[in-house]
Amino acid sequence: MEKRFTFKDLFVLSFLTIVFITLLLTMYMVDRQWQKMSQMQRNMDEQTNDLRGLRTAMQTLEQRLSSGQLVSNAHAPANGDVPAAFGRAQAVTQNEDYATGDWSMQAFGNNLETLTPLVSSDAYSGEVQGYVFESLLQRDPDTLEWQGLIARDWQVSEDGLRFTFQLRKDVVFSDGQPLTAHDVAFTFAFMMTEAIAAPRQRAYYQKIKSVTATSDHEVVFEFSEPYFNSMSLAGGMAVLPRHFYEPYLKEPEAFNQSKGLLLGSGPYRLKDPKGWTPDQGLVELERNPRYWGPVVPAFDKLVWTIIVNEAARLTTFRNGEIDTYSARPREYQTLLEDKEFMAKVHHFEYMSPVAGYRYIGWNQLKDGKPTPFADKRVRQAMTYLTDRERINQEIYLGYAEIAISPFSPRSKQHDPKLKPRPFDVNKALALLKEAGYEDRNGDSVIEDAKGNPLKFELAFPQESEDYRRMILFMKDLYARAGVVLEPKPTEWSVMLDMIKKRNYDAMAIGWTSGIETDIYQYLHGDQTKDGGDNFIGYQNPELDRLIDEARATVDEEKRMQLWRQVENILYEDQPYTFLMRRTSLSFIDNRYRNLKITNTGLNFGFTPIENYVPGPLQKYGH
Length: 622
Fold this sequence. Notes:
Layout: H1 7-66, H2 87-92, E1 103-108, H3 123-132, E2 137-139, E3 146-148, E4 151-156, E5 162-167, H4 181-191, H5 199-205, E6 208-215, E7 218-223, H6 230-235, H7 242-245, H8 252-256, E8 268-270, E9 282-287, E10 301-306, H9 310-318, E11 324-326, H10 329-336, H11 339-342, E12 345-350, E13 357-362, E14 365-366, E15 369-370, H12 376-384, H13 388-394, E16 400-402, H14 425-434, E17 455-461, H15 465-480, E18 484-490, H16 492-501, E19 506-511, H17 520-523, H18 541-551, H19 556-573, E20 576-578, E21 580-582, E22 584-589, E23 597-598, E24 601-602
Parallel strand pairs: 1-10, 17-18, 17-19
Antiparallel strand pairs: 2-3, 4-5, 5-7, 6-7, 8-9, 9-10, 11-22, 12-22, 13-19, 13-20, 14-15, 16-21, 23-24
Helix pairs in contact: 12-14, 18-19
Protein backbone atom coordinates (compact mmCIF):
# COMPACT_ATOMS: atom_id res chain seq x y z
CA MET A 1 0.00 0.00 0.00
CA GLU A 2 1.40 3.40 -0.98
CA LYS A 3 2.06 5.82 1.93
CA ARG A 4 0.89 9.42 1.71
CA PHE A 5 3.07 12.41 2.60
CA THR A 6 1.07 14.12 5.40
CA PHE A 7 1.22 17.53 7.05
CA LYS A 8 2.88 15.86 10.02
CA ASP A 9 5.70 14.58 7.79
CA LEU A 10 6.14 18.04 6.33
CA PHE A 11 6.36 19.52 9.83
CA VAL A 12 8.98 16.97 10.92
CA LEU A 13 11.01 17.49 7.74
CA SER A 14 10.87 21.27 8.15
CA PHE A 15 11.87 21.00 11.79
CA LEU A 16 14.86 18.77 10.96
CA THR A 17 15.92 21.13 8.17
CA ILE A 18 15.83 24.10 10.57
CA VAL A 19 17.84 22.15 13.15
CA PHE A 20 20.42 21.20 10.50
CA ILE A 21 20.77 24.78 9.26
CA THR A 22 21.02 26.05 12.85
CA LEU A 23 23.80 23.55 13.55
CA LEU A 24 25.69 24.63 10.42
CA LEU A 25 25.38 28.31 11.37
CA THR A 26 26.44 27.56 14.93
CA MET A 27 29.50 25.63 13.70
CA TYR A 28 30.36 28.51 11.36
CA MET A 29 30.03 31.09 14.16
CA VAL A 30 32.08 28.94 16.55
CA ASP A 31 34.76 28.61 13.89
CA ARG A 32 34.76 32.39 13.32
CA GLN A 33 34.95 33.01 17.06
CA TRP A 34 37.78 30.50 17.37
CA GLN A 35 39.70 32.27 14.60
CA LYS A 36 39.14 35.62 16.28
CA MET A 37 40.23 34.23 19.66
CA SER A 38 43.34 32.70 18.06
CA GLN A 39 44.20 36.05 16.45
CA MET A 40 43.58 37.87 19.73
CA GLN A 41 45.79 35.38 21.55
CA ARG A 42 48.51 35.85 18.92
CA ASN A 43 48.27 39.64 19.25
CA MET A 44 48.44 39.39 23.05
CA ASP A 45 51.50 37.12 22.84
CA GLU A 46 53.20 39.57 20.51
CA GLN A 47 52.36 42.51 22.77
CA THR A 48 53.64 40.58 25.79
CA ASN A 49 56.93 39.89 24.01
CA ASP A 50 57.20 43.53 22.98
CA LEU A 51 56.54 44.71 26.55
CA ARG A 52 59.09 42.22 27.84
CA GLY A 53 61.66 43.61 25.41
CA LEU A 54 60.77 47.19 26.37
CA ARG A 55 61.08 46.35 30.06
CA THR A 56 64.52 44.82 29.46
CA ALA A 57 65.59 47.91 27.53
CA MET A 58 64.37 50.20 30.34
CA GLN A 59 66.26 48.14 32.92
CA THR A 60 69.42 48.42 30.83
CA LEU A 61 68.90 52.16 30.49
CA GLU A 62 68.46 52.52 34.28
CA GLN A 63 71.66 50.55 34.90
CA ARG A 64 73.58 52.74 32.47
CA LEU A 65 72.21 55.91 34.04
CA SER A 66 73.09 54.76 37.57
CA SER A 67 76.63 53.80 36.52
CA GLY A 68 77.21 56.99 34.57
CA GLN A 69 77.68 55.09 31.30
CA LEU A 70 75.15 57.08 29.30
CA VAL A 71 76.83 59.83 27.30
CA SER A 72 75.56 62.67 25.16
CA ASN A 73 74.22 61.81 21.73
CA ALA A 74 75.72 64.95 20.26
CA HIS A 75 77.54 62.95 17.58
CA ALA A 76 74.40 61.21 16.26
CA PRO A 77 73.73 61.95 12.58
CA ALA A 78 71.52 64.95 12.07
CA ASN A 79 69.25 63.00 9.74
CA GLY A 80 68.43 60.42 12.40
CA ASP A 81 70.71 57.82 10.78
CA VAL A 82 68.22 57.01 8.03
CA PRO A 83 69.62 54.22 5.83
CA ALA A 84 70.47 55.47 2.35
CA ALA A 85 68.27 52.77 0.82
CA PHE A 86 65.19 54.57 2.19
CA GLY A 87 65.98 57.91 0.52
CA ARG A 88 63.68 57.47 -2.48
CA ALA A 89 60.78 56.05 -0.45
CA GLN A 90 61.09 58.76 2.16
CA ALA A 91 61.00 61.50 -0.49
CA VAL A 92 57.69 60.14 -1.79
CA THR A 93 56.06 60.54 1.64
CA GLN A 94 56.37 64.32 1.17
CA ASN A 95 53.89 64.30 -1.73
CA GLU A 96 50.69 66.18 -0.87
CA ASP A 97 48.43 63.24 -1.68
CA TYR A 98 50.61 60.57 -0.03
CA ALA A 99 48.69 58.14 2.15
CA THR A 100 49.10 54.72 3.67
CA GLY A 101 46.41 52.06 3.39
CA ASP A 102 44.72 49.98 0.67
CA TRP A 103 45.77 46.55 -0.59
CA SER A 104 47.96 45.77 -3.57
CA MET A 105 46.16 43.02 -5.49
CA GLN A 106 48.14 40.95 -8.01
CA ALA A 107 48.08 37.53 -9.65
CA PHE A 108 50.53 34.74 -10.36
CA GLY A 109 50.18 32.69 -13.54
CA ASN A 110 51.36 29.43 -11.95
CA ASN A 111 50.77 27.60 -8.71
CA LEU A 112 53.50 27.94 -6.12
CA GLU A 113 55.00 24.78 -4.68
CA THR A 114 56.61 26.40 -1.63
CA LEU A 115 57.45 29.79 -0.10
CA THR A 116 60.23 28.38 2.08
CA PRO A 117 63.53 30.14 1.32
CA LEU A 118 66.40 28.17 -0.27
CA VAL A 119 64.01 25.31 -1.12
CA SER A 120 61.93 27.44 -3.50
CA SER A 121 63.37 28.07 -6.96
CA ASP A 122 60.80 29.99 -9.01
CA ALA A 123 60.54 33.73 -9.61
CA TYR A 124 57.08 33.93 -8.02
CA SER A 125 58.22 32.74 -4.59
CA GLY A 126 61.27 34.99 -4.93
CA GLU A 127 58.96 37.97 -5.48
CA VAL A 128 57.06 37.22 -2.26
CA GLN A 129 60.26 36.64 -0.29
CA GLY A 130 61.59 40.01 -1.44
CA TYR A 131 59.02 41.72 0.80
CA VAL A 132 59.77 39.51 3.82
CA PHE A 133 63.57 39.25 3.87
CA GLU A 134 66.21 41.96 3.85
CA SER A 135 69.92 42.10 3.15
CA LEU A 136 72.84 44.14 4.44
CA LEU A 137 73.01 46.30 1.31
CA GLN A 138 70.81 47.22 -1.62
CA ARG A 139 71.47 48.80 -5.03
CA ASP A 140 70.12 52.22 -5.91
CA PRO A 141 67.82 51.52 -8.91
CA ASP A 142 69.10 54.55 -10.82
CA THR A 143 72.81 54.82 -9.99
CA LEU A 144 73.22 51.06 -9.29
CA GLU A 145 75.52 52.02 -6.40
CA TRP A 146 75.41 49.97 -3.19
CA GLN A 147 73.50 51.53 -0.29
CA GLY A 148 73.26 50.54 3.35
CA LEU A 149 70.09 48.78 4.52
CA ILE A 150 70.71 46.53 7.55
CA ALA A 151 74.38 47.54 7.39
CA ARG A 152 75.15 51.10 8.44
CA ASP A 153 78.78 50.94 7.27
CA TRP A 154 81.25 48.51 5.68
CA GLN A 155 84.92 48.12 4.74
CA VAL A 156 86.72 46.00 2.13
CA SER A 157 90.32 44.82 2.53
CA GLU A 158 92.91 45.81 -0.10
CA ASP A 159 93.06 42.27 -1.50
CA GLY A 160 89.25 42.14 -1.82
CA LEU A 161 88.97 39.00 0.30
CA ARG A 162 87.64 40.44 3.55
CA PHE A 163 84.34 42.34 3.87
CA THR A 164 83.44 43.79 7.27
CA PHE A 165 79.95 45.11 7.96
CA GLN A 166 78.71 47.12 10.91
CA LEU A 167 75.01 46.45 11.47
CA ARG A 168 72.31 48.79 12.68
CA LYS A 169 71.17 48.11 16.24
CA ASP A 170 67.47 48.83 15.70
CA VAL A 171 66.61 46.06 13.23
CA VAL A 172 64.16 43.42 14.43
CA PHE A 173 62.45 40.45 12.83
CA SER A 174 58.67 40.53 12.45
CA ASP A 175 58.25 38.48 15.67
CA GLY A 176 60.09 41.15 17.66
CA GLN A 177 63.43 39.36 18.05
CA PRO A 178 66.47 41.56 17.29
CA LEU A 179 68.49 40.93 14.14
CA THR A 180 72.19 40.61 14.94
CA ALA A 181 75.43 39.59 13.27
CA HIS A 182 74.85 36.08 14.63
CA ASP A 183 71.80 35.77 12.35
CA VAL A 184 73.96 36.73 9.36
CA ALA A 185 76.59 34.13 10.24
CA PHE A 186 73.86 31.54 10.84
CA THR A 187 72.28 32.22 7.43
CA PHE A 188 75.52 31.31 5.67
CA ALA A 189 76.10 28.22 7.81
CA PHE A 190 72.51 27.08 7.29
CA MET A 191 72.54 27.31 3.50
CA MET A 192 75.97 25.62 3.30
CA THR A 193 74.74 22.62 5.31
CA GLU A 194 74.61 19.71 2.86
CA ALA A 195 71.44 18.29 4.40
CA ILE A 196 69.57 21.51 3.54
CA ALA A 197 68.17 21.49 -0.01
CA ALA A 198 70.00 24.61 -1.19
CA PRO A 199 72.32 23.46 -4.02
CA ARG A 200 71.75 26.66 -6.04
CA GLN A 201 72.87 28.88 -3.19
CA ARG A 202 75.86 26.67 -2.37
CA ALA A 203 76.96 26.91 -6.02
CA TYR A 204 77.43 30.66 -5.57
CA TYR A 205 78.38 30.96 -1.93
CA GLN A 206 81.11 28.31 -2.05
CA LYS A 207 83.63 31.09 -2.72
CA ILE A 208 83.06 32.36 0.82
CA LYS A 209 85.44 30.70 3.28
CA SER A 210 83.73 31.89 6.44
CA VAL A 211 81.20 34.31 7.90
CA THR A 212 81.96 35.31 11.48
CA ALA A 213 80.08 37.48 13.95
CA THR A 214 82.88 39.40 15.70
CA SER A 215 80.29 41.09 17.93
CA ASP A 216 76.53 41.40 18.10
CA HIS A 217 76.60 44.08 15.41
CA GLU A 218 79.69 43.34 13.31
CA VAL A 219 80.10 40.50 10.84
CA VAL A 220 83.08 39.55 8.66
CA PHE A 221 82.93 37.70 5.33
CA GLU A 222 86.18 35.97 4.32
CA PHE A 223 86.47 34.88 0.67
CA SER A 224 88.76 32.02 -0.32
CA GLU A 225 89.64 33.75 -3.61
CA PRO A 226 88.79 36.96 -5.46
CA TYR A 227 85.32 37.08 -6.97
CA PHE A 228 83.96 39.89 -9.14
CA ASN A 229 80.56 39.75 -7.47
CA SER A 230 81.78 39.53 -3.87
CA MET A 231 79.89 42.60 -2.70
CA SER A 232 76.66 41.22 -4.11
CA LEU A 233 77.19 37.86 -2.38
CA ALA A 234 78.02 39.35 0.99
CA GLY A 235 75.81 42.44 0.95
CA GLY A 236 72.90 40.89 -0.94
CA MET A 237 72.40 37.76 1.15
CA ALA A 238 68.87 37.61 2.60
CA VAL A 239 69.22 37.32 6.39
CA LEU A 240 67.35 34.45 8.07
CA PRO A 241 66.39 34.58 11.77
CA ARG A 242 68.49 32.02 13.63
CA HIS A 243 65.92 31.40 16.35
CA PHE A 244 63.28 30.48 13.75
CA TYR A 245 65.25 28.31 11.31
CA GLU A 246 67.97 26.76 13.51
CA PRO A 247 65.73 23.94 14.87
CA TYR A 248 65.52 22.58 11.33
CA LEU A 249 69.20 21.69 11.38
CA LYS A 250 68.10 18.77 13.57
CA GLU A 251 65.33 17.79 11.16
CA PRO A 252 66.46 19.01 7.71
CA GLU A 253 63.90 16.94 5.79
CA ALA A 254 61.11 18.76 7.59
CA PHE A 255 62.61 21.98 6.24
CA ASN A 256 63.23 20.61 2.76
CA GLN A 257 59.64 19.37 2.44
CA SER A 258 58.03 22.43 4.03
CA LYS A 259 55.73 24.77 2.12
CA GLY A 260 55.56 27.99 4.07
CA LEU A 261 58.36 28.61 6.57
CA LEU A 262 58.74 32.33 6.02
CA LEU A 263 59.86 34.88 8.61
CA GLY A 264 62.17 37.86 8.15
CA SER A 265 62.80 41.50 9.02
CA GLY A 266 61.19 43.04 5.94
CA PRO A 267 58.21 45.39 5.65
CA TYR A 268 55.69 42.53 5.28
CA ARG A 269 55.07 39.17 6.89
CA LEU A 270 52.89 36.09 6.66
CA LYS A 271 50.18 36.13 9.31
CA ASP A 272 51.30 32.62 10.24
CA PRO A 273 54.99 32.18 9.37
CA LYS A 274 54.63 28.40 9.41
CA GLY A 275 51.13 27.96 8.09
CA TRP A 276 51.01 28.78 4.37
CA THR A 277 50.17 25.90 2.01
CA PRO A 278 49.77 25.82 -1.79
CA ASP A 279 46.13 24.73 -1.57
CA GLN A 280 45.19 28.17 -0.22
CA GLY A 281 45.23 29.44 -3.81
CA LEU A 282 46.70 32.80 -2.82
CA VAL A 283 49.51 34.45 -0.90
CA GLU A 284 48.62 37.22 1.52
CA LEU A 285 51.22 39.33 3.30
CA GLU A 286 50.28 41.82 5.99
CA ARG A 287 52.22 44.92 6.95
CA ASN A 288 54.87 44.08 9.54
CA PRO A 289 53.72 46.04 12.64
CA ARG A 290 57.26 45.96 14.06
CA TYR A 291 59.03 47.11 10.94
CA TRP A 292 62.18 48.94 11.93
CA GLY A 293 62.49 51.09 8.78
CA PRO A 294 61.94 54.87 8.93
CA VAL A 295 59.27 54.65 6.18
CA VAL A 296 56.07 52.74 6.91
CA PRO A 297 55.24 50.67 3.81
CA ALA A 298 52.20 52.21 2.17
CA PHE A 299 49.97 49.17 1.65
CA ASP A 300 48.21 47.36 4.49
CA LYS A 301 48.36 44.07 2.57
CA LEU A 302 49.95 42.54 -0.49
CA VAL A 303 47.81 39.81 -2.04
CA TRP A 304 48.60 37.48 -4.93
CA THR A 305 45.88 35.19 -6.25
CA ILE A 306 46.67 32.22 -8.50
CA ILE A 307 45.04 32.66 -11.93
CA VAL A 308 46.58 30.18 -14.33
CA ASN A 309 44.52 31.06 -17.40
CA GLU A 310 45.75 34.20 -19.20
CA ALA A 311 42.29 35.19 -20.44
CA ALA A 312 40.93 34.86 -16.90
CA ARG A 313 43.71 37.11 -15.59
CA LEU A 314 42.78 39.81 -18.10
CA THR A 315 39.09 39.54 -17.21
CA THR A 316 39.95 39.76 -13.52
CA PHE A 317 42.06 42.85 -14.19
CA ARG A 318 39.30 44.47 -16.28
CA ASN A 319 36.88 43.87 -13.41
CA GLY A 320 39.20 45.67 -11.01
CA GLU A 321 39.86 42.60 -8.89
CA ILE A 322 43.63 42.73 -9.46
CA ASP A 323 45.75 45.83 -9.96
CA THR A 324 48.39 44.71 -12.47
CA TYR A 325 48.43 42.88 -15.77
CA SER A 326 51.34 41.94 -18.05
CA ALA A 327 49.87 41.81 -21.53
CA ARG A 328 50.72 39.68 -24.51
CA PRO A 329 51.51 41.74 -27.63
CA ARG A 330 48.19 41.24 -29.45
CA GLU A 331 46.25 42.00 -26.29
CA TYR A 332 48.41 45.05 -25.68
CA GLN A 333 47.66 46.57 -29.09
CA THR A 334 43.94 45.85 -28.70
CA LEU A 335 43.80 47.30 -25.20
CA LEU A 336 45.60 50.49 -26.28
CA GLU A 337 42.65 51.21 -28.58
CA ASP A 338 40.06 50.68 -25.82
CA LYS A 339 39.45 54.24 -24.55
CA GLU A 340 37.28 53.14 -21.63
CA PHE A 341 39.94 50.67 -20.49
CA MET A 342 42.84 53.11 -20.94
CA ALA A 343 41.06 55.73 -18.82
CA LYS A 344 41.41 53.40 -15.83
CA VAL A 345 45.05 52.39 -16.11
CA HIS A 346 48.68 53.42 -16.36
CA HIS A 347 50.58 51.59 -19.10
CA PHE A 348 54.30 50.98 -19.56
CA GLU A 349 56.28 49.65 -22.50
CA TYR A 350 59.99 49.10 -21.87
CA MET A 351 62.89 46.69 -22.31
CA SER A 352 64.37 46.18 -18.88
CA PRO A 353 68.19 46.22 -18.78
CA VAL A 354 67.95 43.13 -16.61
CA ALA A 355 65.28 41.42 -18.73
CA GLY A 356 65.44 37.65 -18.72
CA TYR A 357 65.22 35.52 -21.83
CA ARG A 358 63.33 32.52 -23.18
CA TYR A 359 65.15 29.56 -24.63
CA ILE A 360 64.90 25.92 -25.63
CA GLY A 361 67.12 23.72 -23.48
CA TRP A 362 68.33 20.62 -25.35
CA ASN A 363 68.74 17.76 -22.87
CA GLN A 364 72.01 16.02 -23.73
CA LEU A 365 71.81 13.16 -21.24
CA LYS A 366 68.60 11.23 -20.51
CA ASP A 367 68.36 8.03 -18.47
CA GLY A 368 72.18 7.99 -18.34
CA LYS A 369 72.50 7.88 -22.14
CA PRO A 370 73.51 10.62 -24.64
CA THR A 371 70.63 12.03 -26.66
CA PRO A 372 70.81 13.32 -30.25
CA PHE A 373 71.34 16.77 -28.73
CA ALA A 374 74.69 15.69 -27.27
CA ASP A 375 76.03 16.48 -30.80
CA LYS A 376 76.55 20.23 -31.16
CA ARG A 377 75.87 20.00 -34.90
CA VAL A 378 72.32 18.90 -34.11
CA ARG A 379 71.90 21.78 -31.66
CA GLN A 380 73.28 24.27 -34.20
CA ALA A 381 70.88 22.88 -36.80
CA MET A 382 67.92 23.33 -34.47
CA THR A 383 68.82 27.00 -34.03
CA TYR A 384 69.09 27.47 -37.81
CA LEU A 385 65.65 25.86 -38.14
CA THR A 386 64.09 28.29 -35.64
CA ASP A 387 62.93 31.39 -37.50
CA ARG A 388 63.23 33.77 -34.59
CA GLU A 389 62.68 36.89 -36.67
CA ARG A 390 59.27 35.63 -37.84
CA ILE A 391 58.45 34.55 -34.29
CA ASN A 392 59.22 38.08 -33.13
CA GLN A 393 57.14 39.72 -35.85
CA GLU A 394 54.20 37.31 -36.02
CA ILE A 395 53.83 36.23 -32.38
CA TYR A 396 55.43 39.08 -30.42
CA LEU A 397 54.53 41.75 -33.03
CA GLY A 398 58.01 43.22 -32.72
CA TYR A 399 57.76 43.63 -28.93
CA ALA A 400 60.87 41.52 -28.37
CA GLU A 401 64.46 41.12 -29.46
CA ILE A 402 66.27 37.96 -30.52
CA ALA A 403 68.46 36.63 -27.72
CA ILE A 404 72.01 35.71 -28.75
CA SER A 405 73.31 34.46 -25.42
CA PRO A 406 72.66 34.78 -21.66
CA PHE A 407 74.20 38.26 -21.87
CA SER A 408 72.05 41.25 -22.75
CA PRO A 409 73.13 43.10 -25.91
CA ARG A 410 73.29 46.22 -23.69
CA SER A 411 75.76 44.54 -21.35
CA LYS A 412 79.53 44.91 -21.45
CA GLN A 413 79.63 41.12 -21.32
CA HIS A 414 78.26 40.93 -24.87
CA ASP A 415 80.56 40.71 -27.90
CA PRO A 416 78.99 43.13 -30.43
CA LYS A 417 80.52 41.17 -33.33
CA LEU A 418 78.11 38.30 -32.65
CA LYS A 419 74.84 38.43 -34.55
CA PRO A 420 71.82 36.10 -34.25
CA ARG A 421 72.10 32.95 -36.36
CA PRO A 422 69.67 33.40 -39.28
CA PHE A 423 66.90 31.05 -40.31
CA ASP A 424 68.59 28.72 -42.85
CA VAL A 425 67.02 25.34 -43.67
CA ASN A 426 69.80 24.35 -46.08
CA LYS A 427 72.48 25.05 -43.50
CA ALA A 428 70.51 23.02 -40.96
CA LEU A 429 70.10 20.06 -43.33
CA ALA A 430 73.82 20.06 -44.11
CA LEU A 431 74.69 19.98 -40.39
CA LEU A 432 72.16 17.23 -39.70
CA LYS A 433 73.52 15.13 -42.58
CA GLU A 434 77.03 15.65 -41.24
CA ALA A 435 75.75 14.38 -37.87
CA GLY A 436 74.35 11.25 -39.59
CA TYR A 437 70.71 12.24 -40.10
CA GLU A 438 68.95 11.98 -43.45
CA ASP A 439 65.71 10.65 -44.91
CA ARG A 440 66.57 7.00 -45.53
CA ASN A 441 63.13 5.60 -46.39
CA GLY A 442 61.38 8.44 -48.21
CA ASP A 443 58.87 9.19 -45.43
CA SER A 444 59.99 12.85 -45.15
CA VAL A 445 61.45 12.19 -41.69
CA ILE A 446 65.21 12.08 -41.17
CA GLU A 447 66.76 9.11 -39.35
CA ASP A 448 70.17 8.17 -38.00
CA ALA A 449 72.20 5.23 -39.32
CA LYS A 450 70.16 2.82 -37.16
CA GLY A 451 66.87 4.09 -38.55
CA ASN A 452 65.88 6.07 -35.45
CA PRO A 453 63.95 9.22 -36.47
CA LEU A 454 64.98 12.62 -35.12
CA LYS A 455 61.87 12.95 -33.01
CA PHE A 456 61.46 14.63 -29.63
CA GLU A 457 58.95 16.05 -27.16
CA LEU A 458 59.19 19.75 -26.37
CA ALA A 459 57.75 20.57 -22.95
CA PHE A 460 56.46 24.09 -22.30
CA PRO A 461 54.24 25.82 -19.69
CA GLN A 462 50.71 24.83 -20.61
CA GLU A 463 49.28 28.10 -19.30
CA SER A 464 51.17 30.29 -21.79
CA GLU A 465 49.41 31.04 -25.05
CA ASP A 466 52.56 32.67 -26.48
CA TYR A 467 54.61 29.54 -25.84
CA ARG A 468 51.86 27.41 -27.39
CA ARG A 469 51.66 29.48 -30.58
CA MET A 470 55.44 29.70 -30.87
CA ILE A 471 55.94 25.95 -30.50
CA LEU A 472 53.19 25.04 -32.97
CA PHE A 473 54.90 27.41 -35.41
CA MET A 474 58.26 25.72 -34.79
CA LYS A 475 56.69 22.30 -35.27
CA ASP A 476 55.84 23.27 -38.87
CA LEU A 477 59.29 24.76 -39.43
CA TYR A 478 61.10 21.68 -38.15
CA ALA A 479 58.89 19.35 -40.21
CA ARG A 480 60.26 20.96 -43.38
CA ALA A 481 63.65 19.52 -42.46
CA GLY A 482 62.22 16.13 -41.50
CA VAL A 483 62.47 16.76 -37.74
CA VAL A 484 59.45 15.68 -35.68
CA LEU A 485 58.56 18.00 -32.79
CA GLU A 486 55.82 16.75 -30.48
CA PRO A 487 54.48 19.65 -28.34
CA LYS A 488 54.07 18.74 -24.68
CA PRO A 489 52.08 21.38 -22.75
CA THR A 490 52.91 20.77 -19.11
CA GLU A 491 51.82 22.07 -15.71
CA TRP A 492 54.52 24.16 -14.04
CA SER A 493 54.94 21.91 -11.00
CA VAL A 494 55.38 18.93 -13.32
CA MET A 495 58.01 20.82 -15.33
CA LEU A 496 59.96 21.47 -12.14
CA ASP A 497 59.85 17.75 -11.36
CA MET A 498 61.03 16.93 -14.91
CA ILE A 499 63.94 19.32 -14.44
CA LYS A 500 64.83 17.77 -11.12
CA LYS A 501 64.81 14.25 -12.57
CA ARG A 502 66.34 15.27 -15.96
CA ASN A 503 63.45 13.36 -17.48
CA TYR A 504 62.63 15.21 -20.71
CA ASP A 505 63.85 15.66 -24.31
CA ALA A 506 63.75 19.43 -24.69
CA MET A 507 62.14 22.24 -22.75
CA ALA A 508 61.03 25.80 -23.59
CA ILE A 509 61.49 27.92 -20.50
CA GLY A 510 63.20 31.10 -19.33
CA TRP A 511 65.87 32.51 -17.03
CA THR A 512 65.84 35.82 -15.22
CA SER A 513 68.88 38.05 -15.65
CA GLY A 514 70.95 40.63 -13.77
CA ILE A 515 73.17 43.67 -14.14
CA GLU A 516 76.14 41.38 -14.76
CA THR A 517 75.15 37.77 -15.31
CA ASP A 518 77.08 34.97 -13.63
CA ILE A 519 76.23 31.82 -15.61
CA TYR A 520 78.09 29.38 -13.34
CA GLN A 521 74.87 28.12 -11.79
CA TYR A 522 73.33 26.76 -14.98
CA LEU A 523 76.03 26.34 -17.64
CA HIS A 524 79.15 25.25 -15.73
CA GLY A 525 79.90 21.52 -15.84
CA ASP A 526 79.99 21.29 -12.03
CA GLN A 527 76.28 22.08 -11.95
CA THR A 528 75.23 18.96 -13.87
CA LYS A 529 75.16 17.10 -10.56
CA ASP A 530 71.88 16.38 -8.77
CA GLY A 531 70.26 19.61 -7.65
CA GLY A 532 72.40 21.80 -9.92
CA ASP A 533 70.72 23.98 -12.52
CA ASN A 534 72.72 22.69 -15.48
CA PHE A 535 69.83 20.32 -16.10
CA ILE A 536 70.63 19.92 -19.81
CA GLY A 537 73.82 17.96 -19.02
CA TYR A 538 76.04 20.38 -20.98
CA GLN A 539 79.79 20.20 -20.39
CA ASN A 540 82.69 22.03 -22.01
CA PRO A 541 85.98 22.10 -20.04
CA GLU A 542 87.23 25.22 -21.84
CA LEU A 543 84.02 27.05 -21.03
CA ASP A 544 84.30 25.96 -17.38
CA ARG A 545 87.87 27.27 -17.23
CA LEU A 546 86.87 30.66 -18.65
CA ILE A 547 83.85 30.97 -16.33
CA ASP A 548 86.08 30.21 -13.34
CA GLU A 549 88.68 32.74 -14.50
CA ALA A 550 86.09 35.44 -15.19
CA ARG A 551 84.50 35.00 -11.78
CA ALA A 552 87.91 35.36 -10.11
CA THR A 553 88.90 38.47 -12.10
CA VAL A 554 88.19 41.70 -10.23
CA ASP A 555 89.51 44.02 -12.96
CA GLU A 556 86.38 44.85 -15.01
CA GLU A 557 88.07 45.34 -18.39
CA LYS A 558 89.87 41.99 -18.19
CA ARG A 559 86.76 40.26 -16.88
CA MET A 560 84.62 41.52 -19.76
CA GLN A 561 87.14 40.14 -22.26
CA LEU A 562 86.79 36.75 -20.59
CA TRP A 563 82.99 36.92 -20.60
CA ARG A 564 83.08 37.65 -24.34
CA GLN A 565 85.20 34.54 -24.88
CA VAL A 566 82.59 32.62 -22.87
CA GLU A 567 79.86 34.05 -25.08
CA ASN A 568 81.68 32.98 -28.25
CA ILE A 569 81.90 29.37 -27.00
CA LEU A 570 78.18 29.36 -26.18
CA TYR A 571 77.46 30.82 -29.61
CA GLU A 572 79.38 27.92 -31.17
CA ASP A 573 78.02 25.16 -28.90
CA GLN A 574 74.37 26.29 -28.74
CA PRO A 575 73.53 24.39 -25.53
CA TYR A 576 70.32 26.41 -25.70
CA THR A 577 68.54 27.84 -28.69
CA PHE A 578 68.21 31.34 -27.30
CA LEU A 579 64.82 32.71 -28.31
CA MET A 580 63.68 36.13 -27.13
CA ARG A 581 63.97 38.91 -24.64
CA ARG A 582 60.48 40.32 -24.33
CA THR A 583 59.52 43.96 -24.03
CA SER A 584 57.55 44.48 -20.82
CA LEU A 585 53.97 45.52 -21.63
CA SER A 586 52.38 46.38 -18.31
CA PHE A 587 49.09 47.85 -17.17
CA ILE A 588 48.60 49.07 -13.59
CA ASP A 589 45.44 50.42 -11.99
CA ASN A 590 45.50 54.21 -12.11
CA ARG A 591 44.92 54.44 -8.33
CA TYR A 592 48.67 53.97 -8.00
CA ARG A 593 51.05 56.90 -7.76
CA ASN A 594 54.80 57.38 -8.25
CA LEU A 595 55.32 54.75 -10.96
CA LYS A 596 58.60 55.39 -12.77
CA ILE A 597 61.03 53.66 -15.12
CA THR A 598 64.48 53.29 -13.53
CA ASN A 599 67.77 51.82 -14.71
CA THR A 600 66.61 48.42 -13.43
CA GLY A 601 63.07 48.64 -14.80
CA LEU A 602 59.72 49.82 -13.46
CA ASN A 603 59.87 50.74 -9.77
CA PHE A 604 56.71 48.75 -9.00
CA GLY A 605 57.64 45.99 -6.55
CA PHE A 606 60.79 47.65 -5.21
CA THR A 607 61.56 47.65 -1.53
CA PRO A 608 61.55 50.02 0.25
CA ILE A 609 58.19 50.55 -1.43
CA GLU A 610 57.90 53.78 -3.44
CA ASN A 611 54.29 53.45 -4.65
CA TYR A 612 51.08 54.39 -2.86
CA VAL A 613 47.38 55.07 -3.37
CA PRO A 614 45.94 58.45 -2.31
CA GLY A 615 43.28 58.19 0.40
CA PRO A 616 40.22 59.05 -1.73
CA LEU A 617 41.17 56.36 -4.29
CA GLN A 618 41.67 53.49 -1.85
CA LYS A 619 39.42 50.44 -2.32
CA TYR A 620 40.29 47.96 0.44
CA GLY A 621 40.67 47.79 4.19
CA HIS A 622 38.18 50.50 5.19
